[in-house]
Structures are given as structure tokens and as C-alpha cells.
Amino acid sequence: MGKKNKWKPLTYTVEDTPLQENVTVEEEDVRQMLNLSYEVIEKTVAKLFSSSNLVDHPFFFIHANAYVLVGTKMFYPCEVAVLKFSLQKGVEDTYHTLINPGSLPVGFAHDAQAYGEVTHRVPYPPLKEAEPSLAKVLDEVQQFVWGGPKAVRECRRRSQFAGEEMCLPPLYTFYDKELFHYDFVNEAVAFDLMQKLTMSSDTPCRFLLHPLAKLLYELRRTTSGAPAASGSEWSSLRDAQEALQRDSFLYTPNIGCEFHERIDAPACCSLSLVKRWALTFSSHCSAPFQGPCPSVPGGAKQESPEASSTSGEAQQGRSEATCVSAPPRRRLPARALPALRQPYASIQDMKHNL
Predict the structure, then answer these.
(1) Under 8 Å CB-to-CB from 153, ≥6 apart: which residues?
(2) Separation CA 45–CA 89 (nearest Å)
(3) CA pair distance 243, 328, nearest whole angstrom
(4) Sign of the CA dihedral running 51, 282, 219, 147
(5) Which residues contact residue 103 at a Cβ distance below 8 angstroms, ignoring those fewer than 6 apart?
(6) Cis peptide before 328 (omega within 30 of 0)
(7) How do residues 232-247 score in pLDDT, each as one tens digit?
(8) Element containing residue 61 per DSSP (H, E)
(9) Whole-prediction pTM value?
(10) Largest CA distance in the chain
(11) Residues of the chain with pLDDT under 50
């Protein structure tokens, strides 16, 4: 078997250190871009902190669900959510939509239905309210991150005047292969969806996708100036990854989309996930602020970093009437498992942000 064209999924430790060597050029690019991405995040947070703009700077989290993976690289998306977060305000705004990707290739409808039943619960064939136009989804995402149609037009005008492509603000996402709602490697799903969205437009638009755990780690290190309020110090990126993996706000009520709340299955909802990430950020990165942590609009309760480690276990003891049952951890059929994907636009884009 030839190694040059053979995709082999990388095995990483929680420190993102490869446990086995890979021979493909693409995978080496992924490794290089991950390091560059870390450097971009470190410099971004340091610059914002030194200029006193960190507390109100907006960060954008993204999560996407997919029906199925066809081949090794093509996902068929079914849902996306983007969240605007700041340390000062917590969740500032959210965007969410179900997506109609069109007809699946012959033989994949059953895989989509089987996977959906144990994870995101978005049915196939798609619901009537699912958006069939990727160009419209891109336009809505652009309006969301840039602040409305006028801002999008102005950004487009400036880009055309400068002879450059538009570039969305950095997007951050996270995945944990051991959790039920990350059977699809979310970085790969989000990256593939953003590729489809940007390619659907007549106006070129670039994007950058960064690891959410690294952002959490850098914000925590920067804002933990008050040890009594910030809890125990984090010694490595692993602490941030474990905080996100813990998913302490899994059972927070009324933070999913209308569809998932209606069927009582918000655990895998993309909108619920990005809000839970924001709650995790607020609970671990609010030391410099006076008063309670920022929260999700609607009354989601915040927890201290110390309490968050046990909150998931405590909430599991609640009655079924007040808690959302988490689906079992089940794997996709072998042909539906994703290969390692490149979660960033390009090495050149990463270096441009340094």
C-alpha cells in the first residue's frame, strides 16, 4: 500500500502532540498551521490586553453538525451556529440556522438517519424550515459578524478598492472525539462548511478557523490576576481542553434552538453547544470583573471554576422532568468516519495574522 496518498488519522495527546508520524504533505501542513494558529492567538490576546481592549473585544465561536461524510472530505451539513462573545458581556448575540444540503448520494440516506437519531436529531430528509441556499447562509453569517448589511457592503467596497479578498473575523471551534456530539470531528465539519459557504458566493471571502481551547487557555492565563477569584492556576493547554470536555453546562435549560427544544434534545444542538462554550469561558475568565460573571441571556446560571468540575455530576442527578438526557456515545459506520482535515484557510493566511 502506498503511503504518499494514504490518509491516516493523526493520533494526538491532549497537548496536541502527535503520537505517530504521518507522511502526507497535507498532514504536515496541518501540524504547521496549528502551531501558527497558537502563535496568532497568543499575540492577539497579548495585544488586546496591552491596549486595554481585551474585555470588550468580540470573539466568534462556531459549531456545525452534518448529516454524513461522503468519501474522505465531503460533509453534508445540516446545522450551523455562530456566537459573539466578549469577556465583559458574555454572550452578545447568536446566529443559527438549519441547512438543507440537497440530495445525498445514493446509499447514504440511511447513514444520515442513523447518525442523526443518536446525535443531533436533525431529520433527513431536511425540514421545511432548513435553508437550501448556502449563499444566503454566508450572507447572513457575514451580516452577523460584521454588524449588518451596510457593514458588509462597506467591507466589500474596501476590499475591492484595496484589491484584496474579504476575510471574516477569526472563528473558533472545539471538538472532543470522546464525546457523543463530536463523533464528527467538529473542526473538519466547520472547516468544510465554511469552505462551501465561501465558495457559494460570487465575491471571494476568506476565513480562519482557530482552536477554541487555546483561546480559553490564553484568556484564562491573562485574566487570572486575582488568584482568590480565579481558582487554581492552569499549567498547560490540557487544563483548558478538560474544562471544555467537562461540558459543565450541558443541562442548562432553554439555550438550544427552537427545533431542538421542541423535541427535547438540545444536548447536540449547535446553538446550545456554542452557548455552553461561552458559559465555560465566562466561568473561568471573569477574575478581573466585579460582580457576577456575564451569562447567556435568559437566565442561565454561572458557576465558579471550582464548582464547575462537579456540576456535571450533580446535574445528572436531577429528575428527567428538568434535565435533558444525553444521547449514548455511539460511533458512525466506518465509511462515515472523517479523515483528518485542514481546519485553517492556508499557511499564508496564518502568517499574515502574525
Answers:
(1) none
(2) 17
(3) 21
(4) negative
(5) none
(6) no
(7) 678 889 999 899 988 9
(8) strand 59-70
(9) 0.77
(10) 61
(11) 1-23, 177-184, 226-230, 287, 289-293, 298-348, 350-351
Are the C-beta atoms of residues 183 and 330 closer than 8 Å to each other?
A: yes
DSSP 165-222: -EEPPPEEE---TTSGGGSS-HHHHHHHHHHHHHHTSSS-EE--EEEHHHHHHHHHHH
In what helix (H) or strand (E) does residue 106 lie, and over which residues does it extend? none
DSSP for residue 83: E
143 within domain boundaries: yes
In sign, the C-alpha dihedral spanning 199, 203, 206, 209 is negative
Q: Which residues of 344-353 are buried (b: 16+ CB within 10 A; e: fewer)?
A: bbeeebbeeb
Q: Helices (DSSP H) in the chain: which residue ranges? A: 25-50, 109-118, 134-146, 149-162, 186-199, 212-223, 227-230, 237-246, 258-262, 270-284, 305-316, 347-352
In whole angstroms, give the CA distance from residue 316 to residue 320: 9
**Residue-wise pLDDT tens digits, 119-161:** 899 999 999 999 999 999 999 999 999 999 999 999 988 888 8
Grid cell for residue 279? 458559559
Q: Quick check: is 6 in a domain?
A: no
The beta-carbon contacts of 315-321 under 8 Å, at least 24 apart in sequence, are: 315/250, 315/251, 316/251, 318/251
AA identity, residue 226? A
Which cell numbers in the block locate residue 128?
421545511
16, with CB counted inside 10 A (0-12, 13-18, 19+), is middle
Q: What is the C-alpha separation between 33 and 26, in angstroms, rounded?
A: 10
Q: What is the number of domains present in the chain?
A: 1
**CA-to-CA distance for 269 and 122, rounded, in angstroms?**
9
Measured between alpha carbons, how far is 52 from 354 in angstroms, rounded to an integer? 20
Domain annotation covers residue 15 = no
Q: How far apart are CA 132 and CA 300, in angstroms?
A: 32
Q: Which residue has cell 488568584?
A: 227
Buried b (16+ CB within 10 A) or exposed e, 100-114: bbeebeeebeebbeb
User: Within a domain: residue 222?
Assistant: yes
Amino acid (one-letter) located at 91: V
Domain membership of residue 188 as a residue range: 25-352
